[in-house]
Automatic annotation (TrEMBL):
PANTHER family: NUCLEAR FACTOR NF-KAPPA-B P110 SUBUNIT (PTHR24169:SF28), NUCLEAR FACTOR NF-KAPPA-B PROTEIN (PTHR24169). One of its GO terms (molecular function) is RNA polymerase II cis-regulatory region sequence-specific DNA binding. Pfam families: RHD_DNA_bind. The lineage of its organism: Eukaryota, Metazoa, Chordata, Craniata, Vertebrata. InterPro entries: NFkB/Dor, p53-like_TF_DNA-bd_sf, RHD_CS, RHD_DNA_bind_dom, RHD_DNA_bind_dom_sf. One of its GO terms (cellular component) is cytoplasm. It comes from Poecilia mexicana. Gene3D superfamilies: Rel homology domain (RHD), DNA-binding domain. Residues 16-63 form the RHD domain. This is RHD domain-containing protein. It comes from the Eukaryota.
């Protein structure tokens, strides 16, 4: 049971207790290696599971918060 409370934004009021997070895209399995501080800065962002060489994506989440007056 989902109710859209503002059509101008993608905010939803969901019938659950408390806020929750929906994972839309997971990180790529072997796309990122942990680096120690002495190895220098990171080499780019964390790629998403559907990321390809010519089309980069990133891990994505959607946050839901029940707002009732």
């Amino acid at each position: 049971n989902v109710e859209i409370i503002n059509k101008n934004f993608d905010w939803l009021c969901v019938s659950v207790d408390g806020p929750f997070l929906q994972i839309l895209e997971q990180p790529k399995q072997r796309g990122f290696r942990f680096r120690y501080g002495c190895e220098g800065p990171s080499h780019g962002g964390l790629p998403g599971a559907s990321s390809e060489k010519n089309r980069k994506t990133y891990p994505t989440v959607k946050f839901f918060l029940k707002v009732c007056c």
